[in-house]
Write a structure and sequence with these properties.
mainly alpha, about 5% strand
Length: about 160
């Protein structure tokens, strides 16, 4: 297994920032509370945790120990679940913030993928996410909002 170089880590961080920006621009455009900076930081943070896990694993392996970088990744998933839960609000029968929470969850997964070096999967998933956010919103507004009891135009 090839060691993670500083240059490779910087490349991963740069890609994480670009992917986070791509997700954040769409949310910023819709004037959502979690926008460009939030998404960039979430993807970057997840990427940093994964890079840290890989580097720690390399050090422990060199010393003759056994390490599992996936353990840090699993705690990142738990942490973003806590943060995402904080953006979901309910008022009466209306629930807002679910798309933002799901977006933060996906952003975290993308950061972990990038940090682990799975660039192609992360980029394809990022494109699919942006397409889903834009295309499905239009679909919801045009097709589903025509239902008389539908509240699809409510924030998030």
């Amino acid at each position: 297994m090839e060691l993670l170089s500083d240059i490779e880590a910087i490349k991963r961080l740069a890609l994480a920032m670009v992917v986070g920006a791509a997700l954040g621009v769409e949310r910023e455009w819709l004037d959502r509370p979690a926008g460009l900076r939030t998404y960039m930081l979430v993807v970057e943070g997840a990427c940093l945790f994964m890079i840290c896990a890989i580097l720690l694993s390399e050090q422990i392996s060199k010393a003759g120990g056994v390490s599992d970088p996936g353990r840090i990744a699993s705690t990142v998933v738990q942490g973003i679940g806590f943060i995402a839960a904080g953006v979901i609000l309910t008022t009466g029968r209306e629930v807002i913030g679910l798309t933002t929470a799901a977006g933060l969850w996906v952003a975290t997964a993308l950061g972990l993928l990038i940090g682990a070096g799975f660039f192609f999967v992360a980029v394809v998933a990022a494109v699919a996410t942006v397409v889903a956010l834009i295309a499905l919103r239009r679909f919801e507004l045009r097709v589903l909002s025509s239902k008389p009891t539908d509240r699809r135009d409510s924030p998030d």
